[in-house]
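Hi team,

Filling in the usual template for the complex we talked about on Friday. All components are listed, including any nucleic acid strands or ligand strings, so the model treats them as one assembly.

SUBMITTER: L.P.
PURPOSE: interface mapping
COMPONENTS: two
RESIDUES: 478
SEQUENCES:
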Amino acid sequence: MAKLESAAKPGTLFHIGPMLEGNRRLTFYEPVEAKWPLGRSIFRLPETLVISMALPPNALARVSRSSTTFFLSFNGESYRSGGLLAEPDRVAHAMGLKNGWHLESIDDERPWLLRGLRRLPLSAWLLAFSPAAASWLRGARGPLLSGVVAAVALNLLLALGYLTATQYWREQSLKALGPEVGALLDAQREVDLLAEQRRIYAGVLRDRQPIYPLWGALEAVWKTGGWISAVRVSDSVLTLRGRALSATEVLTALTKYSGVSDPTFAAAIRQEGGMQEFVIEARLSSSEQQP
Amino acid sequence: MTADRTKFLLLSLVLLAAIKFVVLPWRDQQTESAQALQVLTQRLDRSTGVVLNKEKILSIRDDLRKSNAPLAELFPLSAGDAEAQLAVQAGIDDVLKRHGLKLGLFDWAVTNVNAGDALRYSRFQLQTTGEVGVLARFLADIETGLARVVIRELSLQPQPLLRGPSTGDQAELRLVADVYFRSKVAK
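RESULT (copied from the run log):
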């Protein structure tokens, strides 16, 4: 590689292609003309390389400008138009393009150049540094590096100083608060703990719905001459099944009893042997008074 | 050219070594110091807060201690969960015997559920049969004598009907209840 490079003409550019089937294509470019003075450029990139990057696969481009016309394949190979290689068919055949190739006629290169620049890999940009830019970088490398090192060191030192000073100041402030701080923090934790305990105890006691109003409800039923066939309490909801001469009278009696609230028939009343069978649901209430 | 490249490579090597062995460890140490400082700052803020509110904190603590004590006493302190369950079973046995009732079934459906802080509960189901007036007194004793018992479900199945308070009608009582207690080993 170094030998090839040194054997090339001064100003020769080269491009190392991507790895394809274990090989890389190494392309040399000998610039014959430039649109701008090369001495002031930062990057030097062959026009054919850039345009080939913008070409779709299996495409052959015919680039025409006032002074010259050349053919360029999508893989970067190029021929100046003329002689035997003046027709696209022959050029495609010479370049070994597969069947189905298509021709792109390029009269204005600018959009193709812009598109190709965007597709250039980073390695191509690194190799494209102009000698002047590389020389400038070599000269500026020392001061730049020193500046970065100094900035990093200064940043670390300033941070260290700030952290040390602030830590010391905070520790002094903590000491100045006196020895009772530990006991007070313990007291604060105890307050939190006691408040949590209080909340839990109160919650259990608050949710504790007494069952005793149930007996008042049964007594109310009995006073109407009714009988009870089943009793169930679940989550403070009382379900009474029974028989009475008048189920409505039973419901009325329960409505007047303060130990339950919202008594309603939970099923249809059925007449059975001269008595009415009923199912009443009500909510047990702790504010019981005598029925 | 070769000397330049050698110099450049050596410089890069020194730079990378300095980053690896000096800059990065130094930066890591500063990150740790910053975190320690943050913790210290929070501690200082808390400490300043408690010092400024000293009287208030102590007063609230004393009030809570006084008001919590009778509440806590409602829930017996047990050395262990098994001990608490045994005490409940013994208490219920006493109440049953006092009323001349026979235990048909007793089973712990759920045991040692954490109800928050040191409070736990276990759930039992019980079945007994007796005269309706006796069952009423039995339930009253459970409710008033064992404040830590919370009845969740209850069913009375008369055999065959309950016709009045003093008719001597029999019924089967089924009960599902939670027993709360404080456990020394609870988390």
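MY TAKE: The first strand of chain A starts at residue 13 and ends at 20. Chain A touches chain B through 59 residues (CB under 8 Å).

Thanks, L.
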